[in-house]
Design a protein that fits this description.
Structural class: alpha/beta
Helix content: 25-40%
Strand content: 25-35%
Bound molecules: S-adenosylmethionine
Distance between the termini: 16 Å
Shape: globular
Number of strands: 13
Radius of gyration: 19 Å
CATH topology of the domain at 2-30 and 59-191 and 247-278: Rossmann fold
Order of helices and strands: HEHEHHEHEHEEHEHEEEEHEE
Number of helices: 9
């Protein structure tokens, strides 16, 4: 009797705690960067440097950024399994980067497929996932890739969904997730909104211990409403352009992809928003869950 009475509140508490842990998984990890108010003289000094393609210099260093900054989705999957009484055996990692999360997911999953469009990132991912026979890495664009396979959950971590040219691109990513999910499957991702991009534009982060020294300077372009980040190395800069994604865009894209938004939550600093979406099925016509 008491067991039944307490099961639901305890289940709700565990779910809330799992969301807090995911959203703040890196809050107490030193990023390796000294962050200072944006320095115009520094920005002017780096502006004329040669331009590299995205991740040309960052790819061999990205494991340091990903290790410190990428939210720990692999620790959240057990909470989804428990809450919704699902297996989550097959995982699709969209924009897998250098594959650290795929490698962390592998021991608890039957199959992990990582997709990324950047060949340098994939080359690093092959090294990082080499010892996991159940991880497969595929070169592809997360807006349109079609593997002809389905998964229990798709993930897209560390604001990778912001790396798009426009809102249509974001709708396409949700379409990709929906296409690759079994009925009742989940899509979990995090995104940066416009307020965060504007906040970041006020600071420069200098990475002193992440391999070669480099700095990240964020700008918010009012004309295009996009964020530009110059990652500055001694011999040149990489430019990373991202669009802001906020809850209204997620709601619209989820509806057009036929996905249901189950959860939305943020970290304590209100920088990053996490979304849990689900593909409806007859058994789960709406947000029903077990505690
Ligand atoms: C910020 S990194 C995050 C990587 C990884 N998810 C992590 O947690 O470390 C963004 C990744 O998105 C990938 N990406 C950007 N545009 C993409 C696209 N159109 N299709 C697939 N991957 C893309 C980049 O190559 C890069 O690896």
């Amino acid at each position: 009797m008491h067991g039944t009475m307490f099961r639901e509140p305890i289940g709700n508490l565990r779910w809330w705690w799992a969301k807090c842990r995911l959203a703040n998984s890196n809050a107490f990890v030193w990023s390796g960067a000294v962050t200072l108010p944006a320095s115009q003289p520094f920005r002017q000094a780096i502006a004329a440097k040669p331009r590299f393609a995205p991740y040309e210099r960052l790819a061999p260093l990205w494991h340091l950024h990903s290790r410190r900054g990428s939210p720990r989705y692999e620790r959240f999957l057990p909470a989804i399994r428990r809450r919704f009484r699902v297996a989550l055996a097959d995982v699709l990692d969209l924009a897998c980067g250098v594959g650290l999360m795929a490698a962390r997911l592998a021991p608890d999953c039957r199959r992990v497929v990582g997709i990324d469009s950047n060949r340098r990132m994939l080359a690093e991912a092959r090294k990082n996932c080499g010892r996991h026979a159940n991880v497969r890495l595929v070169a592809g664009d997360f807006r349109c890739v079609d593997l002809g396979e389905t998964f229990d959950i798709a993930v897209c971590a560390f604001d990778s969904v912001n790396y798009l040219a426009d809102e249509q691109g974001f709708r396409d990513v949700l379409g990709t997730a929906a296409r690759h999910l079994r009925a009742g499957g989940f899509f979990l991702f995090d995104a940066l909104g416009e307020a965060t991009m504007r906040k970041l534009a006020g600071v420069d982060s200098h990475f002193l211990r992440s391999g070669p020294r480099h700095a990240m300077c964020h700008y918010f372009d009012e004309a295009t409403q996009k964020s530009r980040t110059l990652v500055s190395f001694p011999d040149g800069n990489e430019e990373h352009v991202r669009i802001p994604i906020d809850p209204p865009q997620v709601a619209a894209a989820a509806e057009s992809a036929g996905l249901e938004l189950l959860e939305r939550f943020r970290d304590v600093r209100k920088l990053r928003t996490f979304y849990v979406l689900r593909k409806p099925s007859e058994a789960n016509p709406s947000a029903g869950f077990a505690s």
